[in-house]
Amino acid sequence: MAAFTEAYNAKNAEIISGFYTENGALLPPQGKALVGRAPIAAHYANAFASGVAGLKYRVLEIDQTSNDTAIEIGETLVAFNAQTITGRSMHIWKKVNGEWFLHRDMYHVLAMSK
Question: Which contiguous run of DSSP H or E holds residue 4?
């Protein structure tokens, strides 16, 4: 997630999409499932164009359930124009050819503050 955060803070949607499996799914709040790297990259590009920036990510828990699957729960702070968005996420990671990728990514907004 450190490399993901670095790419996010550089506003590089293409690099971010590369952290996902080929058929990875992003499940944004109040939106449809985005499956595949191209729709995921488009989601992040739109978010950056809307003023989202400055991700701070904190891992709360990682549970490796098998040799090639892990579940992670985390908390986020994201700047959105003059506001701060507090959120929570659940990631399912898959190991593909010895490398870990996001396979399922679900997040939700807990609060927005100034």
Answer: helix 2-9
